[in-house]
Amino acid sequence: MLGILKRMKIFHRLVLFMLLVISVVCAGFLVVTTISFRTYDEMLYEQASRAMNLSVSGIENEIGNIEKLSMNMALDSRIQEQLISIQGGISSYERSVRTTDFKNKIMQYMFSEDSISSIRFLNTSGYDFLVGQNKVTNQEEQIAEIIRTAHEKEGSGVWIEPENIDAGLISAREVRSIFEPILEPLGTLIFRIDFQKLVERHFRPTSSPTTELFVMSNSGVLYRPKAERFQGFEVEKIALPGKYGSLLQQFEGKSYFLAYKHSSTTGWKYISLIPYDDVFQEKKSLRNTIWLIAAILVVVACSISYLFARSFTRPIDQLARQMRSAEKGDFSASLVDIRAVSQMDEIGYLHKRFNSMIRNIQQLIDENYKKQIVIKDTEYRALQAQINPHFLYNTLNSINWMARMRNEEVISTMVESLSQLLRGAMDNKRTMVTVREEIELIKGYMYIQKVRYGKRIDFEVEVQEEAMDSQIPKFALQPIVENAVYHAVDQVAGVCRITLHSETASNGEDLVFMVTDDGPGMDKAYLERLRTLDYEAKGTGIGLRNIHERLQLAFGESYGIGIESVLGEGTCVRITIPRGGSRYV
């Protein structure tokens, strides 16, 4: 993938990068929008559930109030006194008066709750008292069943669900005496509740005016909306897990949001049904608008990205064309029209510098071409006039044979040593040699010096055999030995001892070569100059700085030269390299 990007043009890379940025922004926008709409849906669900809970609470509270009302009536001492007197041996007139008072009292209770259609009381003596418009029922079997059910509850209230959707909800309670004999049944109090009126009074749709409510018991539907479109909605067949929840329900090709709650008081299930489009139509419109705006913004962003990338790369393409012309030698066509380059940024600067470079090249070609040809020709002739190294080797070889013919062994050996030194100095093909080869050069050099100084110089080599095949930069040891000769032998009147030996470093891995002499040594100031390598080369011209830098270049900064010296006692130069020179690359 990285290789493909490297082969792409800058324009294509810019466009691709901007498209990736736009894609990331769009992905983030999609995630945020999805989360926002999901949160909005949850808020709508919660609002619908809260509205239904308020309606359910109102219905449940009123049912509880009716149950409390029946309890208060059953325990009302005045009502019980009137019932006892009506059933006693009193005159017809007095019974009529008591009956009227009893009905008035019951009517007061009935008017305290709007949803009560009628209150009926049947005593044990056969008296039947009715207050209200709608009679509970005239079927003797149903009345007997209501009385029997209330009697089984022993004074507690009982709710009897309607047998069909038009019948009222029945609340019954057996009235028992609070006087002597205690708890003797006096009759049965029966309430008929207009359940539809009760539900409609407390059901207040807030999410949508078309919200409908179902009330369902274990035996069937207690309340169903009046709208004809819901008459065929079989709500009792819908699985409603748990005590409350919500789900989406399909009915006659439309989606409905359904929220439900199970009442722990009555055991009923309240089901709120909201047309999905009514609640979420605004969300759909908002979502479509947002996506349309987002699509327009993406198109605009892509267009701007394209124009930006083109404006950025057009001057670069122009400069590249001019460079190709310059490669072909057409310098006049390579000049960029500065007036066409309006940028004042780095690209404009490149155009200006390119023009300046082209003009300089033209000037060099026009003014210096012939002059350079003459100079090169002169240099070539001078090189031809230089002494050929092979001529020098042949001359030294002739001198060597002449010395041998005359039995001048010392002269012959000196010439051979000098030839070896010259051959090593002029061999530019190799930068690294073995320690063994370096020591051979040193021995040849020291032979020449011994001829010169005679017994004033004593040189010894004590190098470990395992160090002989290690790699070392060429002329890394010989110049140090030469420095010892120059600074030690020439400065003392007697014999000067110079030693080259090796040892293993303290880390067990590196090699240390030491060139020591017992010459005059040096003071601290001069020693400090040497340690900072602030020293001019002597002799062959290869100074300590050069050797130190070549060692570090070959093996790393942890290797190089170290110098120790004591005034009047001598000097020791330490050269540290890795064993075998294996770190050299």
Automatic annotation (TrEMBL):
Q: Does the keyword Chloroplast apply?
A: no
The answer to whether UniProt assigns keyword DNA damage to this entry is no
Report the transmembrane regions from the record.
Answer: 290-309
Report which superkingdom the organism of origin falls in: Bacteria
Domain HAMP: residue ranges: 310-366
Catalytic activity line of the entry: ATP + protein L-histidine = ADP + protein N-phospho-L-histidine
Membrane topology according to the record: Multi-pass membrane protein
The GO terms describing molecular function are: ATP binding; phosphorelay sensor kinase activity
First-tier enzyme category under EC: transferase
- Give the EC number: 2.7.13.3
Q: Which UniProt keywords apply?
A: ATP-binding, Cell membrane, Kinase, Membrane, Nucleotide-binding, Phosphoprotein, Transferase, Transmembrane, Transmembrane helix, Two-component regulatory system
> Listed GO cellular component terms?
plasma membrane
Q: What is this protein called?
A: histidine kinase
What is the organism lineage in this UniProt record? Bacteria, Bacillati, Bacillota, Bacilli, Bacillales
* Compartment annotation: Cell membrane
